[in-house]
Write a structure and sequence with these properties.
Length: 339
């Protein structure tokens, strides 16, 4: 555990995955409260059937992740994500390519992306290490689909959504979609150069399931004036709502602003995390689903598809295509942010 003071940590609800799988009404209500208020929550895997096996899979994924990042730089750059994938679904991103909060306005992390549900028939170029551990990746993806399926089903039930308009109807595992696994390695910084290695942003998709052992994730919930840290919990993932789910509920679900930052008065340490980024099928219209519990749409807002929003937001992430006047696309806010 970190030495974070209680005042610097956010208090998030904990949702038990096994209770969601059992369709427990109390847990479903608690989940709805979490996504409409904070937009972030802890997901407890410990009580689920085969929970120990799931958490063992996560541990092996951390080892797999370190092995990938330890490859020589020239080998990693053979799989440059900007060269391999227009939609940034597969490949490697070196440190400093994205807009960020370190000197020169660059980011401080490198990442690997691995598309989960292919959008085409062509195999993507990848390092041999991925092929060697393909069964491990398959195990991981299968468990993530179980978790996201339970979340979607529970929220659809809570909002009494009709068949064909339920959240799971837009996230079918047998259909192509721009979902991916993103592995991240944040690099250490000297104390005199400390700064957020990741720019404040909301996630562009539907759900993010994050595993990490090191603190550093900060959130700025709607109405908050200060950033607060989300402390990792053993046996739990940190889950957040993305822009897609917020748009599909006309803002009822909160896509919360977040970033990674050094701990108070400390230099940035090496930090690993893995995020399963679930996105709706690319043709999905990001506008409110019909439900008496979902507020009416703002007709002045442009309606985009999931694929269109993905491309628009990625343009703002890259430093060379970042437009300062449109930073709201990253943050969801047109006013300033606290330091």
């Amino acid at each position: 555990m970190s030495s974070l003071k209680p005042s610097s940590k956010v208090n998030l609800k904990t949702i038990d995955l096994q209770s969601l799988l059992r369709e427990d009404d109390h847990e479903c209500t608690k989940l709805l409260q979490a996504v409409t208020k904070e937009g972030f929550f802890y997901l407890d895997f410990r009580q689920m059937d085969q929970g120990a096996a799931m958490l063992d899979t996560v541990e092996r994924m951390f080892k797999f992740q370190e092995d990938l990042f330890n490859l020589p730089e020239d080998q990693k750059l053979k799989y440059d994500v900007d060269r391999l994938s227009f939609m940034k679904l597969n490949g490697y991103k070196p440190k400093g390519r994205n807009f960020g909060g370190i000197g020169g306005k660059k980011d401080g992390f490198e990442s690997w992306a691995d598309g989960v549900m292919a959008l085409g028939d062509e195999p993507f170029s990848r390092p041999p290490k991925m092929d060697e551990d393909m069964s491990l990746l398959g195990e991981y993806f299968s468990k993530m689909l179980t978790a996201t399926g339970a979340i979607h089903s529970s929220l659809s039930r809570a909002l009494k959504l009709p068949v064909g308009q339920r959240f799971e109807d837009f996230h079918r595992p047998d259909q192509p979609s721009p979902c991916l696994l993103r592995l991240l390695k944040y690099h250490p910084q000297p104390i005199d150069e400390r700064g957020p290695p990741q720019t404040p942003h909301t996630d562009l998709g539907s759900l993010t399931i994050l595993f990490t052992k090191q603190p550093g994730l900060q959130v700025l919930p709607k109405g908050a004036q200060e950033w607060t840290f989300v402390e990792p919990k053993v046996g739990h993932a940190i889950v957040n709502i993305g822009d897609g789910m917020s748009m599909m509920t006309n803002g009822l679900f909160q896509s919360c602003l977040h970033r990674v930052s050094p701990l108070p008065d400390q230099c940035m340490q090496t930090r690993y995390s893995m995020a399963y980024l679930q996105r709706a099928e690319a043709h999905t219209r990001l506008t409110g689903i019909e439900s008496p519990d979902i507020p009416a749409a703002d007709n002045s807002n442009e309606i985009m598809t999931s694929g269109e929003w993905l491309n628009k937001k990625f343009g703002m992430l890259r430093a060379k295509t970042h437009v300062n006047d449109e930073t709201w696309i990253l943050t969801g806010r047109k006013n300033g942010l606290p330091a």
